[in-house]
Write a structure and sequence with these properties.
Largest sheet: 3 strands, antiparallel
Strand order of the largest sheet: 5-10-7
Distance between the termini: 35 Å
Order of helices and strands: EEEEHEEEEEE
Helix content: 10-25%
Low-confidence stretches: none
Radius of gyration: 36 Å
Length: 163
Amino acid sequence: MYEPTIWQDEVVEYPYRYTETENSDGTITHTPAPGETLKEGTPQSATNFNHMENGIFEAHQTSAENTRMIKSQGEKLDGIVGQTIEVTLTNSLAYPFNNSQTTVQLDPSLNTKDYTVTPEIVSVSGGAVGEIEITDKLLNGFKVAYTGSATEVVLKLYVRGGV
């Protein structure tokens, strides 16, 4: 576990005082003249700075691992919760014929075709539903139809898995 360095400022009698020396080449050298040191500060050393760098690196690594774990848990949760899609199917043919098949798009697309689609009938008009058929599963969608004589069926489709 990282233990922070508690940095202390050096406190001197005259923090911004310098002596000035004229050099033989016409330049001037300023030399700090702080007076008495009233309080020692924390040394600015490679040891202290590297300790800080190591702490930053450890925090970065921990953050990256936490991000990876959150993403992993999110993918698992997506597989459990899934998508809910409401779709209206219509049939304009007389029974026993039926043209209700429609394509349902998944957004976002899934990673595998190993997913389940559970239909729930919301409403029915003009006849019986018959069977609900889910076919042609792809990563970005599937087809759904009913086999009965109804003219319109509204379905709620629960898509789970595929992550």
